[in-house]
Amino acid sequence: MSTSPAVRNNSSQLHLIRAHTRAQVLEQLRIPVAVLSSTVFPTLALVFFVLPQTAVTSNPVASLMSIAQLAVFGVMSAFLFNYGIGVAEDRANPWSSYVRTLPVGALPPTVARALTAMMFAFFALIPVLVVGAATTAGMDLYTDGTLPWWRVPLAVAVWLVCGLPFLCLGLLIGYLCTSKVAIALTQVVFFPLAFAGGMMLPPEIFSPGLDAFSRFLPSRAARDLSVSALSGEPFEPAAVACFLAWTLLLGAGAVWANRRDQGRRYR
Asked: Which residues form the ABC-2 type transporter transmembrane domain (predicted)?
């Protein structure tokens, strides 16, 4: 009994995605310093910026909010730098340029890069949760039954999903810029987005003007959704609308940049 063309095509796509994912994971592991730095970066931020503040670490709600902010901060960093700089460097790599000429399409390598970024971002979330649970009062709300434990895996999933607009932004930068420009531009974009999005300082201490401005940013929407998932704090429906709007807008920009680069270099 022969399989249909659609089934064979799906099987072929899955095989290509697995092959590209394996290649990209191995490529990342060949630079252990980069993997280690991206993994411990959010945890170091937690240690240096949160743990010295006893008013935060002794407050369960404030502790959970800080853990969630720095977790999505780490995901944002992994996605934006992995795509913004990684794609730009690949475009200058002769081997990567050759791979793009193969009759594979854009889907397998793009999905593979997303899976690779999510995997390493997930590894960066584990020490944040462990250190946060061991050194702050955040887990008290879970141990005393105030919050259900299913919120922890939910929060991890939300943190990874909240990286999607930054993944698309990284693609946009990577396909439009050279590697040197991408490095500078990614850094220039990353830190203002992280600060204005409330990932370094809680939005509650923002001035009214900065608070109003930050509500239109994808980083603020990702932060609010992430905090709500872990701490149970309510979030505004506008945060969901803002997150979806930025994801669609940046996703469309990434697709356009990919086609523009493909048309210029391989026509």
From this structure: 17-224
Kind and range of the H or E run holding 97: helix 94-101
The two three-digit tokens of residue 239, written as one number = 């945060």
HEC states along 102-156? CCCCCHHHHHHHHHHHHHHHHHHHHHHHHHHHHHCCCCHHHHCCCCCCCHHHHHH
Can you list the pairs that 103-111 forms with residues at least 24 positions away whose Cβ atoms lie under 8 Å?
A: 104/16, 106/258, 106/262, 107/13, 107/17, 108/13, 108/16, 108/17, 108/19, 108/20, 109/20, 110/171, 110/258, 111/17, 111/20, 111/21
Q: Which of 74, 123, 113 lies closest to 91, judged by CA?
A: 113
State pLDDT tens for residues 219-252. 999 999 999 999 888 888 899 999 999 999 998 8
Tokens describing residue 240: 């969901």
How many of the other CB atoms lie within 10 Å of CB of 249?
15
CB atoms within 10 A of CB 77: 23
Beta carbons within 8 Å of 136's beta carbon, 6+ residues apart = 50, 51, 56, 57, 60, 63, 66, 67
DSSP state, residue 255: H
Q: Confirm if 39 and 130 have CB atoms less than 8 A apart.
A: no
* Model pTM score: 0.84
The string of pLDDT tens digits covering residues 93-118 is 777 777 767 777 667 777 787 788 88
Q: Determine the Cα–Cα distance for residues 152 and 85; give it in Å rounded to an integer.
A: 31
- Please give the Cα distance from 70 to 214 (Å, whole number): 17
Helices vs. strands in the chain: H and E counts, helices first: 13, 0
